[in-house]
């Protein structure tokens, strides 16, 4: 047998091996720096071995990804892995379209996941249905340079201190002391969680589909009314009030001095501030007299969808194992600001040469915020048609900010319309038991 024959046989064998590689699709909903990081992880996984190949396909947004995945499942051409955001958890749990990751991967040390991330994606019995991935939480961002110019030498930790600082900033000529977009996740969900307040009965829906909204009767209603008053006083600006029409961009440009925002926004803020301003990131402010509780996890997790073959499931499990590695979580945190999802990663960061690097600024504070003492009201949100509820909340509260109705009327209307959504969801899944 000559060398050319051997080479030909080797080529055929290599081709056969490549043909046996299992290809799977992973659909995700992020754009910008987060999408760049996701693609980098997909490339790294594919380069790390030759047995499996993951094709990562961006869908543009969480909502679009969710809608397309369900439609694809019904048409029996769904991907094996799908990234779903926090608000879609109950819809996915009851869809019968997913396989709980803890059933598929029983040997994984799932108790290593930080409590705040686990709780949101667990069944009532404590079983994880999805693997937390790009996990964020709400943090408080300040432009330390602007604060110090106004004579504010300490980062505010309470809402009372935030507004005292806002008044000093305004007096110093700053037209945008504190900025927000009034988003449901920020001003209702995360506010209620860290203050230990329920959004709905039945422990925010965890104890049954017959829950009802109560956020119009809790201290959250007072906070939202305060935001209206503070805006009228010139202390708070909404996104539409800023030059850019985008509240994060306004903060990053130095137009606004303080904001509440996801930890996932850190990378962009740090890049924008580099060489211009000093950035601080701390836990979101509390009202005096309230004991701090855990903030909710934001972002999304990865689900394994039904309807795929054994080899595809094995490839999916291998990719999930890869993403769970400490070095991959550290890469994702450093490049996006999303927080690690397992407790061992904090130790890995602490032992690294870059333990005090700004790129890990959100890791410790974000995990600390989600690991604060929990209550039944701070486990998460398990309410039907919650994506639509968020839209209702925004529609009604924006009318209040515009002076078209009081904030209390806005919240009463939101409760009424939200309860109608819950009853429709309850009827849709009549007789179905919550997992």
Automatic annotation (TrEMBL):
Q: Which Gene3D superfamilies match?
A: Periplasmic binding protein-like II
Q: Is Transport among the key words of this record?
A: yes
Tell me the protein's name: sn-glycerol-3-phosphate-binding periplasmic protein UgpB
Name the domain of life this protein comes from: Bacteria
Q: How does it assemble?
A: The complex is composed of two ATP-binding proteins (UgpC), two transmembrane proteins (UgpA and UgpE) and a solute-binding protein (UgpB).
The keyword Transit peptide is annotated on this UniProt entry: no
Q: What keywords does the record list, in alphabetical order?
A: Periplasm, Signal, Transport
